[in-house]
Design goal:
Layout: E1 12-21, E2 27-28, E3 34-37, E4 46-49, E5 56-64, H1 70-78, E6 91-100, E7 103-112, H2 119-128, E8 131-137, H3 141-145, H4 147-158, E9 166-171, H5 182-191, E10 195-198, H6 207-243
Parallel strand pairs: 5-7, 5-8, 8-9, 9-10
Antiparallel strand pairs: 1-2, 1-6, 3-4, 6-7
Amino acid sequence: MDAFIHNDVSDIVLTGLSTWTGTSGTPYFPHTTSMFIQVPPKDRSVRLRVMPEQSNDYRVVVFGAAGVGKSSLVLRFVKGTFKESYIPTIEDTYRQVISCNKQVCTLQITDTTGSHQFPAMQRLSISKGHAFILTYSITSRQSLEELKPIYNEIVLIKGDLRDIPVMLVGNKCDEECRDVTQREGAELAKSWNCAFLETSAKTNYNVKELFQELLQLEKRRTMSLQLETKKTKSQKRKEKLKGKCVVM
């Protein structure tokens, strides 16, 4: 997969190294193990060798009802492929090496089951996840309704979502028979305090942008936490100075 840089953000880069672990637990390693970083046109392309063990996992969990296109979105992003046929998923995990905030890490994407038969697995995925993609089909209002208990479960386990990158995603926006308007999706996302995007895994519309935006949310969250930490340390220093006795 080609590397990318998102507009003015030059420190979030997708690379070509990926692995897959399916429900059988068998890992898949592609032929390429190189990382490619796209640089401005004036400069030449830079090629780096990256060892997977040098990276830290950043776990993204994809939720949604059966048939909304979760697997198609992930496969389109990781492998650049799309299949019309639908194969139900229990749980698949894909790994993609990226560069984020000038640090190499592994984007671990968990494609969860659309079935309600595995609540314990769902809770475990939430507890381990760093970011979440809540996917519905714009052709099915029911698929949007089924996200609400999942959202509530994330809030219950994770707490305040202002500190957790979450994307509400309306997939299959290439379809003509729309059952959920774009405005409805945007308003629900606003009430949930999360980002919103419509995508099409079939036409590759907004697929890269989805993961770019998710990483952007994480970048802003990390920077905010760093600023708060610095602020707290500064306040502690001032309190210590106030507590000291000064002899004139």
